[in-house]
Every structure is written in C-alpha cells, then in structure tokens.
Amino acid sequence: MGRDAGSAAADSLDSSEGSENRVKTVKTDEGDAVGIPATGRSAAEGIQAAKAQTQTIAPAAGVDAAVPDEVMVRIPADGAYLSVLRTATAGLAARLDFTLDEIDDMRIAVDEACAMILGQAIPGSGLECRFSLGQDAMTIAVSVHALTPRAPTGDTFAWTVLLALAGSVDAEVGPGDLVTVALRKSRDSSRSP
Q1: Domain 69-186, what architecture?
Q2: What is the domain partition of the chain in residue ranges?
Q3: Phi and psi (nearest 5°) for 42?
Q4: Which residues, other chains included, contact 49 with Cβ-Cβ below 8 Å and sequence gap of 6+?
Q5: DSSP state of 189
Q6: pLDDT tens digit string along 30-66?
C-alpha cells in the first residue's frame, strides 16, 4: 500500500508535553529532527502551514533578476569535510525544486568531483566550491590549488559517473595552478515547478 511522506513522517513523531507550547518532532530521512508546533494538526499539515508562512523576497531595486545567485563555500582540502559540501548541495538544489533523485545525484556528483581533485591539493590548502543558481539549473565548480596541476580526463570511470549524475562536466587548470571541475545540472523540464 502506498503512503505519502506526511503520513510516514507522522508515524515517527515525538511529542514534548508539559506546557501549552508543545512541539512535535519529525525525523527526516537524513535523521535530522524538525520541530513543528503541536496544534492538533498532522505532521503533513504542520509542514504545509510552515511552507505557507514563508515569503519570496523580490530582488532589490537595480538588481537583475536574471543574474544567478552565487554561494561560495571554502573548506580544508580534506575528505573529512566533504559532508559540508554534500549538505550545502542538497539544500541549494532543494531551493531550486529539484526532485529527491536529482538532489541525491548532485550530492554524489559533488563528492566524486572533489575526490578527483583532492589528491592534487597542496597539503594544508583549501578546497573552494562555488554554486551558481539559475532559474532551473545549478552549476557547481570545485577547485584546489595544486603543486603539479592536471585536469581530470574524460576517459575515466569517474568522469563517466559524473556525466551520468550531473549531465554536463568540464575540467580545467587555471591561473595560479588552480584545478577546477565544473558540474551543471538542469532541473527536469518535463515536470511542472
């Protein structure tokens, strides 16, 4: 029998009682706990009410709405910190209304792109990840400074995986021995936003 995500989430509720400000805690698939005011509503109704209270803010006067939002994250060039980039990727892809499968694809693609270039990183240096968010597409560029820079080649299994997950992949060595892998994923245009 099929069940919707709201009823599945409602099954994993914890209630904090003792005051009139009760909160239901819903466990997400990632294991995170999200608090929803306990007003006699189901978890799905509480989530819908929370979404209804969010506002879309128009760009400031003089700002071109066609210019994509950009987010930059800089972490130590160490695999132990890649979970930060996976989380940022998922959050930003969700903001563009990517499907759960597309979000997972991008999380894996970012991880794979970083793995391709981390081995070249100068010890103790940083890894920079730049996210560019368009209307229905996301571009992610991961970069490290290298002692002997080499752009990843398109004839490896890792490159094939990146193409399958992201759709568009490019690699280059730029000024200052900066090795960059850029991924671009467009939201499935066959579904409505």
Answers
A1: 2-Layer Sandwich (3.30)
A2: 5-52, 69-186
A3: -75, 165
A4: 41
A5: T
A6: 454 444 444 444 444 444 444 443 333 444 444 455 5
